[in-house]
Design a protein that fits this description.
Oligomer: single chain
Strand order of the largest sheet: 2-1-6-5-4-3
Structural class: alpha+beta
Distance between the termini: 39 Å
Number of strands: 6
Radius of gyration: 15 Å
Helix content: 25-40%
Number of helices: 5
Strand content: 25-35%
């Protein structure tokens, strides 16, 4: 996909998005989950600001569109995201924070997850923090 195509696809109207998350109507957040579930990691990464960051659980931040795309290509294969509900909170300087709860199913296990997105004034993902919502005992059982 050419850069212009990715940019244009970021501007899709909410009417072209089929995913529904209770409490969330922001198209960038909805497209994040749709593109992740489609396995289109390049298009998912294109939703981030040039200096945007993904903060996956138990790992260092991944910064920049190309680094995020490469990370997702390596780590997110076979994952299915099931966002359930979310809330938004305006921040300073026209930034907006969205907290979304749901579940991630991998080929090996499923786990409850919280996603914390911060969008910049241009409606690009400035940061996406992914937190596993599991007890220490549940997390240890995933290692087997």
């Amino acid at each position: 996909m050419q850069t212009a195509d990715v940019i244009n696809s970021n501007l899709e109207s909410p009417a072209t998005i089929s995913l529904k998350i209770e409490g969330v109507t922001e198209s960038v957040i909805l497209r994040y989950f749709e593109r992740m579930n489609a396995g289109d990691f390049q298009a998912t990464a294109a939703l981030f600001a040039a200096d945007g960051a993904m903060l996956p659980p138990f790992e260092s931040p991944v910064v920049g569109v190309d680094a995020i795309a490469a990370y997702l290509q390596q780590e997110a294969q076979g994952m299915r995201l099931y966002p359930r509900e979310g809330i938004d909170l305006p921040l300073e300087d026209s930034y907006i924070q969205f907290q979304v709860s749901g579940k991630v199913q991998t080929p090996v296990f499923g786990v409850n997850v919280s996603w914390l997105f911060v969008l910049n004034p241009q409606r690009e993902i400035f940061s996406a923090t992914i937190k596993l919502l599991a007890s220490p005992q549940e997390l240890l059982s995933l290692r087997h």
